[in-house]
Structures are given as structure tokens and as C-alpha cells.
Amino acid sequence: MTSDRRVLWFRRDLRLLDHPALLAAAEDGAEVVPLFILDERLLAPAGPSRIGWFLASVRSLADELAEYGATLVIRHGDPEVLLPAIVAETGAQQVHISSDHGPYGRARDSRVRTALGEVPLVETGSPYAVTPGRVLTGAGTGYQVFTPFYRAWREHGWRAPADSAPDRVAWASAPTEAIPESDLPPGVRLEPGESAARRHWADALERIGEYAAVRDRPDLDATSRISPYLKVGALHPRTLLADLADRDESEAFRRELAFREFYADVLHHRPETARDYARPELRGLPYVTGAALREHLDAWRAGRTGYPLVDAGMKQLLAEGWMHNRVRMLVASFLVKDLGVEWTHGARHFLRHLIDGDLASNQHGWQWAAGSGTDAAPYFRIFNPTTQARRFDPDGTYIRRWIPELRSLTGRAIHEPWTAFGGLPDGYPPPIVDHAEQRVAALEAYNALRGGR
Questions:
Q1: Which of the chain's ends, N or C, has fewer CB atoms near its CB within 10 Å?
Q2: Residues 6+ apart with CB under 8 A from 151
Q3: Strands 94-97 and 31-38, sheet pairing
Q4: What is the distance between the alpha carbons of residues 339 and 161, in angstroms, rounded to a whole number?
Q5: Is 33 within 8 Å of 173 (Cβ atoms)?
């Protein structure tokens, strides 16, 4: 055994380039054991698309390492138990990681650090351009509103991409287990892995000037779809920001990256908001229960609400493990404010199916839609599903793509099929609720909770 060997424990950083923890592990010529631990506590809540994308991404990392003559060591089980055993097995003097700022990740890493005893758990870098907790208000607290956070985040700045060089790393190995077999569902249109992510980003970058104008149009399918790669760390946001630095037309895209960082920062400071209300005073809103809850939630999950743009989005989620961001906002508003279902049910469904499902962005995005999040005055924001459809899918292209029953409709009927000549097309349901009535009821409930203010 070498006198200097270190373990690099991959988590949300499944790449070899722009990887600060890899550089730290390989410093001074140390041998590096690349390790990935399959933790069932992270896999259990996920559905087939999410698991398929995740495992395919791990497999792609193993393939990338093989090009450098290295083997990704796979182990199944509890990191708290496995890491001390791997350290003893390999003779490693250090374990290196990118920091994790989610509630589970922080608690897990604390337990691992204790279990490792005198062997240090070295954190270098994070999945974010600016590590959560670094951008603070003048009072030394975390931001709760995006716009001032964005100004401070930009002023703080970030480092240039790390000059990782995996071909110069002295890779070491250990006995490995198999990556479970799990096919990538056919509806997932992205190729996993770092090389594919960089090709995908290069293509998106060529179209970045159009992003602000078309990003809200699901019919044009013109967003970057880079979020699944950011989720698993096949790309680092700092890489993207470096490529955007000299492009004035990229401001809208840069803000979207900053939203991801903002929500991670909020969760870092307030880990309880992963499950609980960011605004506890809204915990008392009335929601449907019993048979009504099951009926409304089942119809929404299946894309059978009778509102075409809502249903198209839910069908896209089931087929692709992804949904256009504008439609995500609409279906979330509809579930909570039209169907009266508590946001936690929708957030859980999204995290089961979204291949880009990020805990911080998902939970706080849902709280934004529900009116309990970090927005200053969100209680009156109730999306009209028909108006949204007319505005962002004007010709019904997105709706027809996902709802075969409506493909023959044109004009007003594609957005309001209950007005179609001859009645609703066969197989498509009538509206599950009346939006106008539900809007009034939701506002009354909010105002009542706020004491009539």
C-alpha cells in the first residue's frame, strides 16, 4: 500500500471535470479510490424514471473512469458503516467529499465524520456556485426574498471552474459490487453522463439568446433541460456561469441558476422547511380530506382533471420524468388552490417522478405556489389554467402532444374542450371543479386565516 491514499466519495458530483474535491483528494500525488455508495434511504422514495436516470448517471461515471484505467468502487448500504470499513480495507488516510447541504446529507455526514474517528472527512466545494450559507444579509442572516439574494449573490461572485485533470490522477481501487440493473425509461429523452451533459450544454448555449423570449412556452420545447445534469452533478453550475459571463443576453438564464442557489440557501438556514411551512401562520389553511382528497389527487396525478394544460403537464411528467417549468407552476397552483390539496402531497409526487427533482428547489417551489413560501405576498396568486393555456400554448401544440383525445380540436375548444361542438371528445373528462368558484373559495380561506386583512 502507498503511504498516501485517499477515498473520493462521489455523491451529487458525478463528474471528473471542474471537481474541487477530486483535486483536493489527488493533491501531492496521493492515490485516489473513487467510491460511490448506494444508500437505500435515498432510493426508496423514488419512482422508475428517477431511479433509472440516477443509476444510469452512476454507470456513466463508471464508464468515464474506465477511460482513465480506473474502477468506480460501488458499495451498497449505510455510509456510516461502510466508510470506516473501506478506509481500513484500502489504508486510506482521508475521505474527500463535496459538501451536502440538505437536511439528510448534513446529518449523514456528521455521523460519518464521527464514525471515521481520526480519519478526516474533508469537504471541498459543493453542488453550487456559491456554497449555501456564504451569502448573508447585513444582519448576518440568510435571505428570505429572492431579489436581494440575487444582488448579493452576484456581488459575492464565484470561483472559476476548477482545472481538474483526471488523466493525471493516480487512481487506486478496491473490490466492487455491481450497479443494479435499471433501464432508463424510453420517455427520458436525455443521455446520461458528463460527456453527454457537456454536449447538451454546448447546444443549449448556442440558443441562449432566445431563452428569455421562449422559456415560458411549453409548445416550443425551448428550455435548456440542463437541470437533470445539475441534479446529479454531471455539470457544475460554475461551469455554466463561466460560459455565460460575457453574454449580456443570458441574464434570464443566470437568474434561473440563481433561484436554484437561493432555495438551497434557504433550506441550509431553515432545514425544517423541507417538510414544514416556511410561513407557519399558513399551516391552518383548510384542505380537502378523505374521499375528496383521494379523488382530487388521483385525477391530478393521472392527468384527468378536465383542464387540458394541467393534464398535459401531468402526462409529460409520467412519460418523461420531467415537466416544463411554466407548467410546473400551473399544476402546483391548480392542485393547491383549485383542488384544495395540501402542497406536501404534490411535492412528494414530484420528487417521486422528476429526474431533476432537487429537494430545496422542489419543496420551496411548491411552497411558493401554495402561498406559504419565501415570497412577500403570494396568497392572491392563483393561476387560471385556461388563461395560462391560451397565453403559453396558444395553438394547443403542447396539449395535443400529450392528450390524444383532444388532437382533433381547434380554436377555443383546444383550451376549453367542454365548449367543443358536439360536446367533450370521447375519453376526456369534464372539468373536475369550476375554476372561478375555487378561486373565490381559496381567497376567502386565505383572508380568513389572515384575520380578514
A1: C
A2: none
A3: unpaired
A4: 45
A5: yes
The yes-or-no verdict on residue 282 having pLDDT over 90 is: no
CB count in 10 Å sphere of residue 366: 25
Phi, psi for 334 (deg, rounded to 5)? -65, -45
Least confident of 240-244, 245-249, 346-350: 245-249
- Give helix 343-353 / helix 290-302 axis angle, nearest 10°: 30
Residue the block writes with cell 382528497? 293
Summarised one tens digit per residue, pLDDT across range 166-193 is: 999 999 999 999 999 888 888 888 999 9
| Coil, helix or strand at residue 17 | coil
Distance CA 406, CA 397 (A): 11
Q: Which residues of 156-193 are buried (b: 16+ CB within 10 A; e: fewer)?
A: eebeebbebebeebebbbeeeeebeebebbeebebebb
Contacts for 313 with CB less than 8 Å, ≥ 6 apart = 218, 303, 323, 324, 327, 328, 330, 331, 402
Helix, strand, coil % (nearest 5) of the chain?
50, 5, 40
Count of residues for the chain?
453
CA distances from 87 to 73, 84, 115, 270, 388 (A): 13, 5, 11, 33, 55
Average pLDDT of the chain to the nearest whole number: 94
What pLDDT score was predicted for residue 189? Answer: 85
Domains and CATH numbers, the chain: 5-126 (3.40.50.620), 127-161+196-269 (1.25.40.80), 280-447 (1.10.579.10)
Chain segment 406-422, per-residue pLDDT in tens: 999 999 999 999 999 99
Instruction: Determine what percent of the chain is predicted with pLDDT higher than 70.
Output: 98
In this structure, what DSSP letter does residue 423 have? S
**Do residues 195 and 63 make contact, with C-beta atoms less than 8 angstroms apart?**
no
Phi-psi region of 302 (alpha: psi -120 to 50; beta: other; left: phi over 0): alpha
Q: What is the C-alpha to C-alpha distance for residues 381 and 190, in angstroms, rounded to an integer?
A: 33
The three three-digit cell numbers of residue 59, written as one number = 454507470
Contact yes or no for 9/37 (Cβ under 8 A) = yes
What's the distance, CA 298 to chain centroid? Answer: 23
